[in-house]
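Severity: low
Component: inverse-folding endpoint
Summary: output formatting inconsistent between runs
Steps to reproduce: submit the following structure tokens with default settings.
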């Protein structure tokens, strides 16, 4: 349209008329551009990886296969040595590749039938998803072929990676590390996972912005179980999050509409059955049954490079594979062994657009355990006690933690509870949900899930440990939580335990005559009750905690009617004071003073970095969990705890911050080994870049396929 009359053109009335005529036309152009932009973002013409300056891969796949291949490439570029070693272990051939120290690992993998089951799982995938797993393996092999010189010689023996290796690793990790592991079998009465976590979901009614918020904060050892942060964009998906190295889909993630995180829940997905042996078999319902047996060649690499071969035989009963203990023969029964759709479920969780779609994916129950903590753009929040929970005919949670009689079918479970049976709460009246590895009953206050409504074996009835209490207290006490406040709370090093007993301990210590105990009381009285780097008194208190017995130290035990305020008080103040004197003597001998700063003793070390640490063990009630290992010089080095952290607000656009404290790479000479550790030390998160404009403004490398 052209204007030729300047007078008419300059007329305000004319402008208004012309604008009204042009408005529909302009809106149609804007809409077309928006749709075009959206489609370009979700379906690029070629597959590429844009690496940002923190080593986060932003994957743009022209199709799903392209995205999976690029993700395999990216993980190998960042973690090749670790990934190949994990896959070698999952094959049950680690001793053959790397020697004697891996024999127990191989025996565990073979006993649990991992490699054989991986083949069955691969065949059970639908053709489309099978092609995705193929593509992920292709990406690993393509990177390895092009960059062989960047991979350690000793792990190259694992190449080429096969699609079945991906599923073997998934099983070894999910079923035979998290659900059950060698350590938990050795201590049958302690069904413990190697991991913990914090998770929060905050509804609009408790959010300062009026938007739902999510906090993802898994805790894992800083060794083999490393998180890997990434963004994956392809037709039908634009998700950002993290997964464990070697897993081809995001396990914790968010998109523009929703997000979720996981914590290790109080889930019992395995049992140890004691067998009564008779006539080379075992008794079951009054009859002798023969064992099923399978034999495997187990090769062990010797120091001179030769291989020593032995035959390893696995026996199985109707319950499952047999493991021998000193005084008994046990058979293990483990959930999840028929759940070949775990990866597809995680993938579809990341593609969901609302709560209804998300729940339909969850209802598949392919994921054998883990709490699901959820929040979305529409303001919904949810806590699901997720997992495959066996339907048991008798007993409570404590009963099933012990050794179960294996001579009767009355104790043999064969079915799992369906989705509708699992404890869950959606949009509680409180407006907040939390889980810090406590049972589902204490996810919010007032209590929204009643333990009496579920079988007594579903989850334990308590106690609620101090980290979970600290988690709940922070949420309950703030009726309008801003995004920045949520991030600050996440880094809280306050010791909930100290709030319960410190005043009483100080009072009792101040009444003592000996000078050391009185000085210890003075240090504790001046302490800020935190484990920040400059906190003085935290080391002394921590040494004292190591010397006490949690089962007997409290005057008032934990009570489920007062879950956030018990246990409380000192049962025996004099014994507590004696333990304090002993702790003070140890601290003064080791560090020459009682009020040494926490960060002088507890360190963050990686490469050339040696930084003062903050945070500590969750049993002290510290929400910012950092686990330490002694270094031999009287100091302690961070070895686990906080790993991947993501804080998300479902505003428009989504607001997000994240961090992987140990960095997004473990490859030697990578700039992204520990480049985020200084932020970790300063209790800071880094921005999440999700748009192409943001990513290209912080671009380090581009890889096109």
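Observed output (run 2 of 3):
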């Amino acid at each position: 349209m052209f204007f030729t009359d300047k007078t008419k053109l300059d007329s305000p009335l004319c402008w208004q008329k012309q604008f009204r005529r042009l408005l529909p036309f302009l809106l149609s152009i804007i809409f077309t551009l928006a749709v075009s932009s959206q489609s370009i973002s979700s379906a690029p013409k070629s597959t590429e990886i844009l690496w940002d300056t923190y080593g986060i891969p932003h994957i743009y796949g022209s199709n799903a296969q392209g995205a999976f291949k690029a993700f395999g490439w990216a993980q190998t570029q960042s973690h090749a040595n670790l990934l190949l070693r994990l896959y070698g272990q999952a094959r049950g051939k680690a001793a053959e590749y790397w020697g004697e120290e891996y024999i127990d690992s191989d025996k565990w993998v073979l006993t649990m039938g991992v490699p054989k089951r991986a083949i069955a799982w691969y065949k059970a995938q639908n053709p489309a998803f099978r092609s995705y797993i193929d593509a992920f393996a292709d990406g690993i092999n393509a990177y390895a072929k092009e960059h062989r010189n960047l991979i350690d010689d000793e792990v190259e023996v694992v190449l080429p990676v096969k699609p079945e290796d991906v599923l073997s690793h998934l099983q070894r990790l999910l079923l035979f590390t998290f659900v059950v592991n060698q350590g938990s079998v050795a201590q049958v009465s302690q069904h413990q996972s190697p991991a913990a976590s914090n998770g929060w979901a905050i509804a609009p009614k408790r959010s300062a912005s009026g938007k739902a918020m999510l906090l993802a904060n898994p805790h894992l050892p800083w060794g083999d179980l490393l998180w890997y942060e990434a963004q994956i964009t392809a037709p039908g998906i634009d998700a950002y999050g993290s997964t464990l190295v070697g897993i081809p889909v995001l396990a914790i993630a968010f998109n523009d509409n929703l997000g979720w995180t996981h914590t290790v829940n109080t889930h019992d997905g395995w049992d140890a059955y004691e067998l009564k042996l008779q006539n080379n078999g075992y008794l079951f319902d009054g009859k002798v049954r023969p064992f099923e047996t399978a034999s495997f060649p187990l090769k062990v690499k010797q120091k001179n490079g030769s291989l020593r071969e032995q035959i390893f035989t696995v026996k199985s009963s109707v319950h499952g594979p047999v493991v021998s203990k000193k005084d008994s023969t046990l058979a293990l029964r483990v959930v999840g062994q028929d759940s070949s759709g775990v990866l597809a479920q995680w993938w579809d969780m990341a593609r969901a657009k609302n709560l209804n779609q998300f729940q339909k994916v969850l209802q598949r129950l392919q994921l054998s355990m883990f709490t699901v903590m959820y929040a979305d753009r529409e303001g919904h929040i949810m806590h699901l006690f997720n997992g495959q929970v066996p339907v048991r005919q008798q007993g409570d949670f404590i009963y099933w933690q012990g050794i179960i009689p294996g001579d009767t079918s009355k104790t043999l479970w064969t079915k799992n509870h369906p989705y509708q049976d699992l404890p869950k709460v959606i949009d509680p009246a409180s407006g907040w949900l939390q889980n810090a590895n406590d049972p589902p009953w204490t996810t919010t206050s007032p209590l929204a899930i009643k333990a009496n409504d579920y079988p007594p074996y579903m989850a334990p009835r308590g106690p609620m440990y101090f980290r979970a209490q600290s988690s709940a207290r922070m949420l309950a006490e703030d009726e309008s939580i801003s995004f920045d406040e949520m991030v600050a709370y996440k880094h809280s090093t306050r010791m909930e335990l100290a709030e319960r007993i410190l005043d009483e301990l100080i009072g009792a210590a101040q009444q003592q005559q000996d000078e050391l105990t009185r000085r210890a009381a003075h240090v504790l009285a001046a302490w800020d009750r935190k484990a920040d780097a400059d906190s003085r008194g935290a080391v002394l208190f921590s040494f004292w905690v190591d010397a006490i017995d949690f089962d007997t130290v409290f005057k008032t035990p934990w009570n489920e009617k007062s879950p956030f305020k018990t246990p409380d008080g000192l049962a025996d103040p004099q014994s507590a004071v004696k333990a304090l004197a002993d702790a003070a003597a140890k601290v003064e001998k080791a560090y020459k003073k009682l009020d040494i700063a926490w960060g002088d003793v507890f360190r963050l070390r990686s490469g050339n970095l040696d930084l003062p640490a903050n945070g500590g063990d969750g049993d002290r009630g510290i929400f910012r969990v950092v686990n330490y290992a002694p270094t031999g010089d009287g100091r302690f080095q961070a070895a686990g705890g906080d790993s991947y952290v993501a804080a998300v607000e479902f505003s428009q656009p989504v607001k997000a911050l994240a961090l992987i404290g140990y960095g997004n790479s473990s490859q030697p000479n990578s700039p992204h080994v520990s480049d985020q550790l200084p932020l970790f030390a300063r209790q800071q998160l880094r921005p999440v870049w999700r748009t192409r404009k943001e990513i290209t403004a912080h671009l380090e490398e581009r890889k096109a396929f």
